[in-house]
Write a structure and sequence with these properties.
The complex is a heterotrimer, with 1 copy of chain A (252 residues) and 2 copies of chain B (200 residues).
Chain A (H helix, E strand, L loop, with lengths): L6 E3 L4 E3 H9 L10 H15 L4 H22 L5 H5 L2 H31 L25 H4 L5 H11 L5 E2 L1 H4 L5 H12 L3 E3 H4 L5 H16 L3 E5 L6 E5 L9
Antiparallel strand pairs in A: 1-2, 4-6, 5-6
Chain B lengths: L2 H15 L6 H8 L3 H14 L7 E6 L2 E6 L4 H9 L8 H13 L2 E2 H8 L4 H9 L3 E6 L5 E5 L1 H6 L24 H13 L6 E2 L1
Antiparallel strand pairs in B: 1-2, 3-5, 4-5
Helix pairs in contact in B: 1-3, 2-3, 5-7, 6-9
The chains are: A mainly alpha (252), B alpha+beta (200).
Amino acid sequence: MSIAALDLDLDVFTGPFDLLLTLVLREEIDLFELQLADVVLAYLDHLESSGELDLESATEFIVLIAALLELKSRLLLSGEDEELLDLEPDEAAEELLAKMLDARRYRAAAGYLRELFAAEGGVRFRAAPLPEYLRRSTEEPTDDRSKIGQQDPAVLGESIGRLLHMPPAISLRHILVPRVSVVARLAHLRGLLRRGRFSFDEAVSGADRMTVAVTVFALLELYRRGEARWDQAENFGDISVHAVAEPLRVAG
Amino acid sequence: MTDSAEHAHTIEALLFLSTDPLSPRELADATQASEEAVAAALTQLAEEYAPGRRGLRLRELAGGYTFATDPASENAARRLFSRPRAFTLTPAQAETLAIVAYLQPISRPEISRIRGVSADSAATILLERGLIEESGRSQFGAVLYRTGTLFLKLFGLRTLDDLPDVARWDPTPEEQAELRDRLLRAGEARSGGGPGAIEE
Amino acid sequence: MTDSAEHAHTIEALLFLSTDPLSPRELADATQASEEAVAAALTQLAEEYAPGRRGLRLRELAGGYTFATDPASENAARRLFSRPRAFTLTPAQAETLAIVAYLQPISRPEISRIRGVSADSAATILLERGLIEESGRSQFGAVLYRTGTLFLKLFGLRTLDDLPDVARWDPTPEEQAELRDRLLRAGEARSGGGPGAIEE
């Protein structure tokens, strides 16, 4: 089954996974309100009920959920932009500073507006229809065209022309095409395992974040199949992976 | 300021706000005062707003009280409100009117789909001004709209065939599809309605 | 009765009839008088309707003049009309409104970019309430928004120029420098971070 068709029943959304993704990218669903953990749980339920792990669709799922997580974490980090990642730290800091100042400025302005609004509390205006003698269509045609402001039909053609413009398409290419698959990372890890033991840092050296994420998943898969175990001496420390056949000594 | 002056002020404000005449009972309930107090306040207001003293008068109508303008202001009011104003279409109204003009009869939901945002307030104003009118219902029960005689007069057209050819403003004139289909496609791409906008 | 008293009465009547604030120019046209005469009449009315003197006040709002109630009558008005005078403004709506007020015309994507979160539902509610309105489209086809008369009226502003300079809410140069330092340190930490950050 393609991951796109994975049926979800969440607080904020019910429907297939690919539609959820589309709606999130178009900001019709607020990513803040979407519990990504629920999406993961729905996927795990699906895995459990289907009883088999299709590595291709697993890859697809990880890539997509990772993309959503990245998107959400960026939103949470006060609107960091993609370009920021390619900038030098000082440039990125400047850019971020400008954004933070902007956001802060208008938050303060919003507070000011709310004060104004409250100060005007209790002031009401009259909104009654005009008396009968004044209710006459103001656009009634008269002989004197200048009085009603003759309209130019070109206005209509221009409006249609503007509406015919296709907006630039939203591209999903960068996340819908996995650059890395669980299958490939499994093969990579198995190659390393032939040595009996390897370090996770080494396995993902030079890899991008997506590859690292998929490699973690491949590692979990090796563990599930009983091919490998690992240990980690300290939090955030290197993970040492070893083949299960080898007599092992687990540290920590 | 005395309590009774304040009470009269409140009643003045209520009469000013209300579209319909207010009865002494309603005024007493709203101001949490006795009907006697309301009567006293109304007497005071009737004096202050006696004919000729202000631009407004306090009138007793249909068992209630209401403010009305002094007839002396009628000519000025006519000049202000009945004067044919050089009316201008807002961009939203121009878009909505153009869609109705070229695609009539057409329903509101369809207009909104083409615009990519709601067309409700624009359509309501065009209806009020008599530039568009209802024209039956679609097979799904939505009200359909068309332009009327006033539209043709305002735009100096004899018939709808005189509408300018859109080709002049068409960004992709080589496209063969019908105008309606192309507008719907572009509109859905703008609002994110259909999968057409997503490149995969 | 003098002519000038009569003129003031007529203006009083016109202000009562009109839902929107009327500019001195409109009042001069309608009453066929000079703008000086209108100014004199408005000064007289402003005195007669000064705060505390009546149940109504003459207000200068949204580029013109209009009558509004004295807030002292609000409780009675609420009882009579059994609804609050207006809506409440959530922080998200206030923020969206502030961005539109200061940066108009502006599109939804731009508002969202500044806020850091989607502004769609807030913008839709502001539109429904008439606080913001459409103002054409950007070169990419996105609908642009601006504030309208109702915004100025409800917020007690004569014009948008009455809004204070946004720069007044900027942090001091010292605070900015400190913020920059902190960001720089965070940026360096991030560019030095590797895959080691992945937890088992």
